[in-house]
Amino acid sequence: MLDYDQEAARYDETRGGEPRARAAADAILGLLLAGPRTLLDLACGTGIVTRRLTRPGLRPFGVDLADGMLRAAAPRLDGAVARADTRQLPFADGTFDAVTAIWLLHLLDDAAPVVAEAARVLRPGGVFVTTVDKAAAHHVGSDLCALVARHRGCRPADASGLVTSLAAAHGLRACGEAAFVGHGQGRTPRRVAADVRAGRLYATGGEALARALEALPEPRAPRPDPTYRILAFSADRR
């Protein structure tokens, strides 16, 4: 996994910047139930998305484990940030009207503790919103897709079916879905090949996969931007 303290300085510019953040926030806000006043953003990173998760009467609060990320997020969120492990949140049961986890679950070996904590800190009637199926969003419809498909490995922690099952186990029922474009996230074959060689992607592919990627036409040309999927779950608890 990346060192997010070191990554903080370049995170926004390498992750689609403001266009991607705006698209993500708009999709999230469209899934929030009417009238939430308190929102907790898990693994808020630099706060580039979190600061947009607002409307009249709604103020977001962000948590992250990386000090570098929190230093970037603090001025964007007027200091409404804290260092916290998303698997063991320092908040009482039923504290928040909404909890968001954007580009978090795919980084984990096991999403269960995070989903459990999100459910715990939600008030009855609140909503949990999370991205799912991140890896599957990349390369869809491009010439990279067929090459990498068999190297994606076992079901990721953010697989939509798995997340839905985990949510249901904690009384959260599916209540909405949205999608948004990951602006600036279309990868080039050369970049994917470099990530394969460095062990950051498709560990089973190795040098053979890297060479096959580099042999594709126009290996320096970005492929289409991914379309990310978001699911919303309501804490009905009847």
Describe the fold and architecture.
This protein is an alpha/beta fold. The chain has 9 helices and 7 strands. Strands 3-2-1-4-5-7-6 form a 7-stranded mixed sheet, sandwiched between helices. Strand 2 (59-64), helix 3 (67-76) and strand 3 form a beta-alpha-beta unit. The mean pLDDT is 89.
Short description:
With 238 residues, the protein is an alpha/beta fold. The chain is built from 9 helices and 7 strands; from the N terminus they run ααββαββαβαααβααβ. The chain has a domain of 163 residues: Vaccinia Virus protein VP39 (Rossmann fold).
Sheet with the most strands, sense and barrel status = 7 strands, mixed
CATH topology of one domain: Rossmann fold
Low-confidence segments, given as residue ranges, are none
CATH superfamily of one domain: Vaccinia Virus protein VP39
> Helix fraction?
25-40%
Q: What overall form do the CA principal axes indicate?
A: globular
Q: What is the straight-line distance between the termini?
A: 39 Å
Tally of contiguous helical segments: 9
Gyration radius (Cα, Å) is 18 Å
CATH architecture of one domain: 3-Layer(aba) Sandwich
Which structural class should the secondary elements be placed in? alpha/beta
> What's the arrangement of strands in the largest beta sheet?
3-2-1-4-5-7-6
Mean pLDDT across residues: 89
